[in-house]
Amino acid sequence: MNFKELNLSETLLEAISFMGFEEATPIQEKAIPAILDNKDLIACAQTGTGKTAAFILPVLNTLLEEKKGQQTKVLVIVPTRELAIQIDQQIQGFSYFTNAESIAIYGGGTGSEWDQQKRALTSGTEIIVATPGKLISHLNMGYVKFDHIKYLILDEADRMLDMGFHEDIQKIITYLPKERQTLMFSATMPFKIKQLAKKILKNPVEITIGLSKPAEGVLQGAYLTYENQKIPLINNLISDKPEVKSILIFSSTKKKVSDIVRGLRNKNYRVEGISSDLEQKQREEVLRAFRSKQIRVLVATDVLSRGIDIKDIDIVINYDVPGDAEDYVHRIGRTARAASTGLAITLINSDDMYKFHRIEMLIENEVMKLPLPAELGDSPKWSLKNNKRPFVHKKRYPAKNRKSNYRKSGGNQRKRD
User: Fold this and answer.
1) Any idea where the domains of the chain sit in the sequence?
2) 3-class SS at 411?
3) What predicted TM-score, i.e. pTM, was given to this entire model?
4) In sequence order, what are the beta bridge partners of 297?
5) Would you place residue 392 in the very low, low, confident or very high pLDDT band (cuts 50, 70, 90)?
6) Mean pLDDT of all residues in the chain?
7) Do 3-209 and 218-376 fold alike per CATH?
8) 189-211 pLDDT, tens per residue?
9) At 317, which helix (H) or strand (E)?
10) d(CA 361, CA 365)
């Protein structure tokens, strides 16, 4: 569907064209008319489907029709500072011809940034994009006025609940007018999201697009490897392919990020790591350099697995199999965005085979297992025999006897995942 068919203003259509967008994505086709019709909305769509524009465009369209004033009318809540910055930048891009103002409110900054955020919240910037914790810090000071909020938007709602922000979200809502339009966007639809939706949405329109499935343009493959083969394998895959200019590697821990970066250091191209250990300005600098292709290989924790829009990533490599099957979809969703194509490679050691099997069950597809290069030696054999759901005794002991019975069993009872 062409954006002109969505009843958006000519001013916005000019901005959309200026930014290089032509056809609306499925989530935009369904969400934009519902939002323009003043409906509450709960939308579930995978990463990379254009969710941000699906709520930014109709909101800006409404603001265009109203008289500009020093009031905050739109509040967007997001889980991470990176996503707050990104959405704020997209708003500024789409609103270039509209004069709508926005600011990102997030932690980790300097005292001057706090003062800038305070001024924006006090004077009433039209659109606020905020992380829950930092926004509550401002709300607790008593100077924030949200009396004129028309839109509350929760983006990556499932991620926020996973991060423990449920109570923070509920507290923020107490500061908002009861008469408002509430939009909830999520990549997955677990029970806790449905429960939250029941509390804060009124007769919402429900939209589900491609739930828990990788984008069609992602070519998936996996290697069975021993741990000491992973770095040599990655070097083998990328060192002689100069045409592959953007590679994102996901690690499950911050410590491994540093180890991987050291193992991949190369005089011919730049390799950097990013995790919550870096200061905010450092993280922003690394992301800018990666977007502009100054960094060829970026190693990251799951802080980048959702919501960060980096175009033209050629290869995503899962150095570790993610513990949550849903996270696999988010990770590989960093490539093949917006109808492009990309490659996703996962490195699977013996301990991770059952976890990867669960991923294949979720995506309803068996991922091709690729042979290791001969010079790296033999690989583990695919087997679920020793990777099945851990054994749990059926017999239950009274609480006071469990410890002694555990000792009698030789301490061999295994913990659940």
Assistant:
1) 3-209, 218-376
2) coil
3) 0.65
4) 247, 271
5) very low
6) 83
7) yes
8) 778 888 999 999 999 999 988 65
9) strand 315-318
10) 7
Return d(Cα 132, Cα 313) in angstroms, integer: 29
pLDDT of residue 397: 39
Q: Which fold has domain 3-209?
A: Rossmann fold (3.40.50)
Q: Residue 115 carries which side chain, given as an amino acid letter?
A: D
CATH number for the domain running over 218-376: 3.40.50.300
The residue with tokens 């996703």 is: 344
